[in-house]
Amino acid sequence: MGRKIALIGLGAMGAGMAGSLRRAGHEVHVCDARAGVAQQFAKDGGVACATPAEAARDCDIVVSVVVNAAQTEDVLFGANGCAAAMKKGSVFVMCSTVDPNWSAALEGRLQALGLQYLDAPISGGAAKAAAGQITMMTAGRPEAYAACGDVLEGMAAKVYKLGARAGAGSKVKIVNQLLAGVHIAAAAEAMALGLREGVDPEALYDVITHSAGNSWMFENRMPHVLAGDYTPLSAVDIFVKDLGLVLDLARATKFPLPLSSTAHQMFMQASSAGHGREDDSAVIKTFPGIELPQKK
Amino acid sequence: MGRKIALIGLGAMGAGMAGSLRRAGHEVHVCDARAGVAQQFAKDGGVACATPAEAARDCDIVVSVVVNAAQTEDVLFGANGCAAAMKKGSVFVMCSTVDPNWSAALEGRLQALGLQYLDAPISGGAAKAAAGQITMMTAGRPEAYAACGDVLEGMAAKVYKLGARAGAGSKVKIVNQLLAGVHIAAAAEAMALGLREGVDPEALYDVITHSAGNSWMFENRMPHVLAGDYTPLSAVDIFVKDLGLVLDLARATKFPLPLSSTAHQMFMQASSAGHGREDDSAVIKTFPGIELPQKK
Predict the structure, then answer these.
(1) Rg of chain A's alpha carbons, rounded to an integer?
(2) What is the pLDDT of residues B38-79, one digit of tens each?
(3) What ipTM describes this predicted complex?
(4) Which CATH superfamily includes the segment(s) B171-286?
(5) Closest approach of chain B CAs to the CA of A156, in angstroms?
(6) Of these residues, A128, A173, A241, A254, which one is catalytic?
(7) How far out from the chain centre does Cα B8 lie?
């Protein structure tokens, strides 16, 4: 049975998720900070709204797919924010990558307003979002899950339920970003050493992707380096941010993360050198004394 | 058609490879520095020999599966070494993980003795060795490959041919070890942060192995941590050695490897703390302030 769902933030992930919800038979009310984006989406169905408050007003579920905690604060509590407009007992589904401690606190802030909250960071990229095949790393009270019904499954191939207290989903997402960031930087370091040593990079890619040195990120990102194509699918600056969140979380309990801090420096070096908006595989450009494959 | 093949070094990898060669119909002459090991192997067929020289004497192919370059030097040029005993035109197949520049130089040293040389580091672990399913990363002159015939395929699921000059195989192996070592240390760092934050480690493993943060090593090694079982399949000290080789190679051309050097320090910290002979996943024991799962 179709539900009324607000989806806020029609970026690469949000647009695909909104489309998946629409295909699943829901009435999707959308808004985006960029002019015209919501209207464009609504041409194929759904309701274009000007603000989060307007989008959320008649809905049971609000799915927020913005960049970070600051934008989420604005979606909820800014001018035209949706927190005041949401129906009592409706649920706010927070899909951004954020500080888990901030997410845990948000649960209490929304509870005080009579609203449910689901900590629900996502993973999978734009193609999986468009296909309704993302992964959601969720945590929240049973009432929050009950308010969502089976709506999450309309967007996601897999909905991990990681605890009854918000923050656990964000913690797992942060650990995933730790590995993703370190693995991209390690892939770059390995490919850079191979190039330095005169190894054929295509042969190196073939061997590594069939060996114990492989990672999801090596396999996914190094073709960009081999093609000399740094068109951003996910940008260097995303990992400046996300490894920053990883380090912030650990610092809050004074916990050491030697590899994460090293990888973070590598992404910051790449960003500072002017590559922040290039594909994250451009972290390989921080290695001097090598000749990278050129775009054909 | 069966060939006469010497295999030197019946460790976890060598014993499996010798068995694979025997099953492939070859006459395998084996020796091992430990008393009785060769005799034990020969109970099921093959010829037990006391020294590398004795094993190599009548063979066309000598496969060396010892720990490092120093042991390989001893196998070839030590008292009872095989270099002087090998037939002109026979081939020495070097399967250890070594400095690629040393391997490249060895080709010339053996050529001066009328011997062929194949740079052929291996990957895959004991189970794959026993099944004849390892990966070989090879490089050498066409005459060296010709001298091997199809013997390599009797031990390996995949024989990568990476160049006509020894050293290219070892370079690719070194890059693989860079990634393998960094990924084990990163897996430990990620699991340690999860434990520090109170995340359920089994759930974390489930999510990560289905997400973009996955690596071959995370998937393979973290079950040891979850089970609290540090029985060494591959020991911490192997990565003290192998990441040391990675750093030596890069230092020879003054090339920076920030993540490799950090991971190397983590393995050395684990070794110095007394965990050198435990499973390499014991690098997680360098993280203070967490409670690791205990062995059931």
Answers:
(1) 20
(2) 999 999 999 999 999 999 999 999 999 999 999 999 999 999
(3) 0.95
(4) N-(1-d-carboxylethyl)-l-norvaline Dehydrogenase; domain 2 (1.10.1040.10)
(5) 13
(6) A173
(7) 14
